Amino acid sequence: PVIRREDYQPFPWIVPQTELEFVLGIDSTRVTSRLTIKRNPETESISPELRLNGDGIKTDMVMIDGARFGDWSMDEGDLLVNLPGESHTVEIVTHIDPSANTALMGLFASNGMLCTQCEAEGFRRITFFPDRPDVLSTYRVKMSGPKDLFPILLCNGNKVAEGDGNDGTHWAEWHDPWPKPSYLFALVAGDLVANSAPFTTQSGREVECNVWVREEDLARTDHALQSLHRSMKWDEETFGREYDLDLYNIVAVSDFNMGAMENKGLNVFNTKYVLADPDTATDADFDAVEGVIAHEYFHNWSGNRVTCRDWFQLSLKEGFTVLRDQLFSQDMQGEAVKRIEDVRILRAAQFPEDAGPLAHPIRPDSYREISNFYTATVYNKGAEVIRMMRTMAGAEDFRAGTDLYFDRHDGEAATCEDFITAIEDGAGLELAQFRRWYRQAGTPRIEVSQKLGDGDGLDVTFRQTVPDTPGQKNKGAMHIPLRVAVHCRETGALGEEQLIELRHDEQTISLPLAGPVPVLSINRGFTAPVIIERELESEDLVFLAAKDDDPFARYEALQDLAVRHLVAAASRELDQAGRAEGKRLVCDAFRSILSDPALDHSMRGELMMLPSETYLFEAMAGSDPAGIRKAEPLEIHKEREQLKTAIGVTLKRELESLYAQVADIPYDDPAGRGARKVKTQIAALFAASDPERAAVMASRQFDQADNMTDRQGALMVLCGLQHPAREERLQAFYDRYQGNALVIDKWFTLQALSLHPEVLSHVKTLAEHADFTMKNPNRVRSLYMAFAGNPQGFHAQDGSGYRMIADVILALDPINPQTAARFVSPLGKWRRIESVKAGLMKAELERIAVTEGLSRDTFEQVSRSLDG
Ligand code: ARG
Ligand code: ZN
């Protein structure tokens, strides 16, 4: 069935108290739930029906008001009882088998421990309950189990009692004083140790903070714990939000569908976002740990204290919390580089979604399976939309808006509309038209043209369109803020930045000049998640790339230069001379980046990154409004490699001297991080231009590395080479890290992502490796998500890459539907790709669609991908 946003009805009952009792066992756990329920005074419903959601569970016994009750029935998985009267207690006993739970939703076993994942609809796999985010209840939980297997027993809130049984068992009772929806429930039982350190809040309360892991992982938890402390402090200072319990627990588990989960007082994390030390985690891994720890912590206010009324409002908590974690990371790591990285993620993951069959607004209108809507659109575009509000209001007024939002809705299940209204009232914005960002899917495109005005201004004309998306046509104009400045190419004068706001299909705005040869710098800092289209002289882009004072605009100009050249070349629009000219321009811009003394190495490394092949795919398929031009991933790949070759050849001397400068900067040096980024970039360029040199460089980097960033970077380069050093170092890496799951994931990923021509057969071999398993989501993704993002392998001429991914979906669907469904979107790109490949991709989708017994998750994604 399709669930629709407009059909929302409040639940006819409230559940003030929930008492749960767990008798824990890996393959059999008994759950007793005692609910106090009352009629919801806010609904008119007079039906006596009480519907308690269930999913694949059965009840052993139902008691109503203390008496055995036989008159219940089942509907789909739900339990129905009819209860005349105002208030009752409902007691239900269920049995579940956590070890059989390979979907990893509800209560499941991982590495000998038990843990839960309830968002969005996992609680109904544990016990019968109104499993919807607008039913808030206060939980008291008692659990017991064998002390040897489960020495640690954790739940939400505070531990209020504990004791030993006389049969080798022990028990603990937990109470969470904060009413919460069922999706925030969590329970963990296992053999765990903690890294702990207290945090003192701004009002002077001491919070015990623990990071729980298996003993062998304890040495890699300091970064997570420190990140938590930094997040707690930052949220007090930046958003005025203080933590509200005396205990904050984080548990790392190795089998997990997503990154992490913000359960009240008991976050459950994928180990990938907890464990880090220099020997096993890259700089990017350290940042990801910090970012995800912050994200889950920030949810305590944006998500838990104020939660969502229904799942259509998911972006209310996710978009806002992603913005909060981005702002935090900007403050921790540096604003310019973090902003560029966030835009890169948006373009790589969200723009394609917005342009494809799975496009949906940040607040969707309908779904079959809500798990399919934990998307880059809801999360990352959602964050961009709120960031635009912040840009228009200014940080200070925006804070007044968020203060009002938290004040007004604390303890409630709110809507996106509530959030917008609070920002309007508190920040003094008018957001009537801006609300379209919540309703309309698709990335707006803005065509920009300019001419010198009569006076002393530059007349800039903006024409915006929002493309049609599945189920949505003829959309209204968006309210779009843009930070702009007009520089002068002749004098080098930089114009002053101003914020303009577009509201019409077409409008012309006059901007002040800084000198006689105007160069428009637009969407500075990536103010709005839009695509800018403009005819600009290449000299202007070269100027912006070298001189713009906005670091993002500088990055963007370089990207533009490369995109223009690569899209034209891949579309076979360039003759010999045009091709040479395009490469020359990119090389010139690169040269100024390599030698600019004003850049730190971190920023230099960022600027040296060529546009990704996914972004080029979008640019190529989207550059023709009639939709006739299709993307040719193999051409894109070939041209991009050739451009790397050209840069490597033309700038060999400059690259060598930069490499020599950065090669021996120590790990802990403040410039170390930037140096590592630059080093690997250079080796990667040489891999295209001079493989022998690259092999020497990367082997040396690998052999001398004292950290994972250098080691992984070097191995990445070697993986693309047909050189004996490749196998030697792969083996050395495997031998060194055998048994460390997160690092072995990297070993799979590096090979699946590699530029080696035989990548497809490598992946087939790796799937047979003793360390490969379909049961662990990290491992599955490490091999196959990486492969699906490798154009050379995935888009192989004969369709074998598509077949491989379709086979993965079919094999994984019965085991873990949520993770299986995530593999559908690469195949969903078929409409925008040249016709032979399009046919092969579509055939694979059709093969999946006719398979019997498909999960709701995969069925929904496959049918949308075929229809859209
Ligand atoms: N709320 C979590 C987060 O973003 C994500 C959990 C999603 N889980 C799921 N099964 N869809 O922090
Ligand atoms: Zn989240």
UniProtKB/TrEMBL annotation:
<keyword id="KW-0031">Aminopeptidase</keyword>
<dbReference type="InterPro" id="IPR042097">
    <property type="entry name" value="Aminopeptidase_N-like_N_sf"/>
</dbReference>
<dbReference type="InterPro" id="IPR001930">
    <property type="entry name" value="Peptidase_M1"/>
</dbReference>
<keyword id="KW-0378">Hydrolase</keyword>
<feature type="domain" description="Peptidase M1 alanyl aminopeptidase Ig-like fold">
    <location>
        <begin position="442"/>
        <end position="534"/>
    </location>
</feature>
<dbReference type="InterPro" id="IPR012779">
    <property type="entry name" value="Peptidase_M1_pepN"/>
</dbReference>
<dbReference type="Pfam" id="PF11940">
    <property type="entry name" value="DUF3458"/>
</dbReference>
<keyword id="KW-0862">Zinc</keyword>
<keyword id="KW-0482">Metalloprotease</keyword>
<keyword id="KW-0645">Protease</keyword>
<dbReference type="InterPro" id="IPR014782">
    <property type="entry name" value="Peptidase_M1_dom"/>
</dbReference>
<feature type="domain" description="Aminopeptidase N-like N-terminal">
    <location>
        <begin position="91"/>
        <end position="184"/>
    </location>
</feature>
<dbReference type="GO" id="GO:0004177">
    <property type="term" value="F:aminopeptidase activity"/>
</dbReference>
<dbReference type="Pfam" id="PF17432">
    <property type="entry name" value="DUF3458_C"/>
</dbReference>
<keyword id="KW-0479">Metal-binding</keyword>
<feature type="domain" description="Peptidase M1 alanyl aminopeptidase C-terminal">
    <location>
        <begin position="539"/>
        <end position="866"/>
    </location>
</feature>
<protein>
    <recommendedName>
        <fullName>Aminopeptidase N</fullName>
        <ecNumber>3.4.11.2</ecNumber>
    </recommendedName>
</protein>
<dbReference type="InterPro" id="IPR027268">
    <property type="entry name" value="Peptidase_M4/M1_CTD_sf"/>
</dbReference>
<dbReference type="Pfam" id="PF17900">
    <property type="entry name" value="Peptidase_M1_N"/>
</dbReference>
<dbReference type="Pfam" id="PF01433">
    <property type="entry name" value="Peptidase_M1"/>
</dbReference>
<dbReference type="InterPro" id="IPR024601">
    <property type="entry name" value="Peptidase_M1_pepN_C"/>
</dbReference>
<dbReference type="InterPro" id="IPR035414">
    <property type="entry name" value="Peptidase_M1_pepN_Ig-like"/>
</dbReference>
<comment type="similarity">
    <text>Belongs to the peptidase M1 family.</text>
</comment>
<feature type="domain" description="Peptidase M1 membrane alanine aminopeptidase">
    <location>
        <begin position="224"/>
        <end position="437"/>
    </location>
</feature>
<dbReference type="InterPro" id="IPR045357">
    <property type="entry name" value="Aminopeptidase_N-like_N"/>
</dbReference>
<dbReference type="InterPro" id="IPR038438">
    <property type="entry name" value="PepN_Ig-like_sf"/>
</dbReference>
<dbReference type="InterPro" id="IPR037144">
    <property type="entry name" value="Peptidase_M1_pepN_C_sf"/>
</dbReference>
